[in-house]
Amino acid sequence: MGWEVRMSNSRNVPYFFNEETSSSSWEPPAELSKEQVAQLPGAARYLSGGGGGAPAPTASPGQVRASHLLVKHRDSRNPSSWKEKSITRSKEEAIEILRGFQSEINDDESKFSELAGKNSDCSSYRSQGDLGFFRPGQMQKPFEEATFGLKVGEISDVVSTDSGVHLIMRTG
């Protein structure tokens, strides 16, 4: 099996780590039942919500949870991603791409997650854009301000940061 539950230092939420493959996931391994997940090393310490199923992290006071869809451009602080070694598009082109995603999403949370999982230039694409919980001061200011200004379930308009342009969905 090789799986165990660990706590993320940066997000302060549990994740699943496979010692054998050195792979990690925010979601429980698909090949494991809820009962097997509950028996993993670290499960009793880090997973909440009872039943031993998926992690049910809760926010500490002052924290929010969000997902995002990032499109980088050539002026981003790191103009490369898992999809493209060297990103050459302009900021305006990145915004245009994001606007296309925005019209496709049309306030549909599951569509947001699907598109973030396929298209985000952030490594969070692996978890459909989920960034977990964070508190003030952990994200770039424009991202933080937009996220804290949303209600749970709301999706932002285009937000520009040094990382690129984002759509943000507040999830907690």
From TrEMBL:
Residues 43-66 are annotated as: Disordered. CDD domains: WW. GO terms for molecular function: peptidyl-prolyl cis-trans isomerase activity. It is an enzyme of class 5 (isomerase). It catalyses: [protein]-peptidylproline (omega=180) = [protein]-peptidylproline (omega=0). Its EC number is 5.2.1.8. Residues 1-31 form the WW domain. Coiled coil: none annotated. GO terms for biological process: positive regulation of transcription initiation by RNA polymerase II. It comes from the Eukaryota. GO terms for cellular component: cytosol; nucleus. This is Peptidyl-prolyl cis-trans isomerase. The lineage of its organism: Eukaryota, Fungi, Dikarya, Basidiomycota, Agaricomycotina.
